[in-house]
Amino acid sequence: MFEIFKVIILGIVQGITEWLPISSTGHMILFDEFIRLQQSEIFISTFLVVIQFGSILAVLILYFKRLNPLDRNKKPSERKNTLELWLKVIVAVIPSGIIGLLFEKQIDKYFFNATVVSLSLVVYGIIMIYIEGRHKKPRVNSIKDISYSLAFKIGIFQCLALIPGTSRSGSTIIGAMLLGTSRVMAAEFSFFLAIPTMLGASLLKLIKSGFAFTGFEWFLLILGSVVAFVVSVIVIKLLLNYIRKHDFKPFGYYRIVLGIIVLLYFALIK
Fold first, then answer.
1. N or C: which end of the chain has fewer CB within 10 A?
2. How far apart are CA 63 and CA 29, in angstroms?
């Protein structure tokens, strides 16, 4: 029963931190210290990736009409916009997809540690505060106005998320805003980029694990994904409502505080 409780907690953490620009990795590192699953290392590493599927499902359901190019109720121009959206998403995920596949082992070996995570949290927190402090008027306020070159540039920023602690949503949101997009547009495009990125990561992790899990472990994977899905639906709605009236500065300050906590914990206590 305690394992089930821990999975529920981890699903909640995943559902919250995946969409907020505060780094799910930084939180998972801390939570893993206190509520570590009593399972094999292979299962734990797979679980922490695969429960992202629940978060992806939340985006697909919340934006189903917008993302569905086969909707017969859409006008031809609307279907065209949907197809173009998917093409822009594909263009944007190319950089991180290539770098991730080529350098996955090196990234895990040299960057997946508490020092890198804490520094990433602090540095990108400062950058987020700086960007919001500029008060520049966005030039791009709609996803349909994103050019393919702009989508590719945002995708380059997503490569930064390969460094643990950066935050996938944080890197794409920061990149999109630096390139002149509005907060809401940056957040939504970040949601859409997560679909192929996280689906690919989850599928790759399952293939590498050989799908060799017990019935109870499959139950834990499904439970974690369901919890992440429910929490993600709530968090995405709350985030969009929040950024329509407020900026990302509080998330920047939160990242700095969390980064210092992670650094101090592993330097002085661990």
1. N
2. 30
Residue for token digits 């590493």? 45
* DSSP 8-state symbol, 181: B
Q: Are 169 and 25 in contact (CB under 8 A)?
A: no
Tally of residues, the chain? 270
pLDDT at 37: 82
**Residue 102 CA, distance from chain mean position:** 20
- 172/178 Cα distance (integer angstroms): 10
Compute the average pLDDT of residues 205-228.
Answer: 88
Q: Read out DSSP for 192-211?
A: HHHHHHHHHHHHHHHHHHTT
Contact by Cβ (8 Å): 56, 63: no
**The token pair that represents 38 in the structure block:** 């009593």
Whole-model pTM? 0.90
Closest among 194, 223, 200 to 47, alpha carbons compared: 223
CB contact at 8 A, 172 and 111: no
* Tens of pLDDT, residues 149-166: 999 999 999 999 888 888
Residue 178 CA: distances (Å) to CA of 131, 148, 159, 231: 7, 16, 15, 29
